[in-house]
Amino acid sequence: MHPALQVFLMSAVPILEFKAGIPLGIARGLHPAWATALGIAGTLVQLPFNLLFLHLLRRWAGRYRPARRFLVWSRMRARKHRQTVRRYGVLGVAIIVGVPIPGTGLFTGTVAGSLIGLPTWPLVLGLVLGTIAAAALVTLTTQGIVHLFA
Questions:
Q1: Would you give the DSSP letter of residue 13?
Q2: Measuring CA to CA, how many Å separate 103 from each of 30, 62, 78, 96, 121?
Q3: What is the sign, positive or negative, of the torsion defined by CA atoms of 70, 7, 46, 36?
Q4: Which residue of 38, 50, 88, 127 has the fewest CB atoms within a 10 Å radius of its CB?
């Protein structure tokens, strides 16, 4: 499989996202800018599915116990980010998504923004900006580590 396709597909996996895809692409010989663009695109492919999933989950939570449990779990996971989103709105979502550490990815930002009631388009803008910022940080970090061992 071509390394570009590997980066895109790995970045489309919700937990891995670009945090795994970009280093893989650079390690497989892709230009860092190309690996970053593919990582961002792969990660953002999840966005409409995340929004649809949360919408359906809210509808099903009243009828189905597993859906209710997952919604409660998602809310608990996003609760620690609630103040940031309330205070800064779109920028708050971008900050949550823009820090490339475990638990601060696209899904968490989507849940946090959705819980606060951020309208869809401002939420999407914050998610996209945060993803771009975090991907740039991952690329720069990966490049630094590659140069240490080269």
A1: S
A2: 27, 26, 9, 9, 23
A3: positive
A4: 88
> In total, how many domains does the chain have?
1
Taken in order 134, 71, 58, 119, is the CA torsion positive or negative? Answer: negative
Label residue 146 by pLDDT band (50, 70, 90). Answer: low
Inter-residue contact 6 to 16 (CB < 8 Å)? no
Q: Could you read off the pLDDT of 36-79 as tens digits, one per residue? A: 999 999 999 999 998 998 888 777 877 878 877 877 777 776 67
**What is the full DSSP assignment across 29-80?**
T--HHHHHHHHHHHHHTHHHHHHHHHHHHHHHTTT-HHHHHHHHHHHHHHHT
- Residue 23 belongs to domain spanning: 3-149
Q: How far is CA 138 from CA 10, 46, 47, 66, 115, in A?
A: 15, 19, 20, 35, 27
- Axis crossing angle, helix 3-11 with helix 17-27, rounded to the nearest 10: 170
Residue with tokens 């998504």: 97
As a 3-state breakdown, the chain gives helix, strand, coil percent values, each rounded to 5, of 80, 0, 20
Residue in 70, 95, 58 with CA at minimum distance from that of residue 80: 95
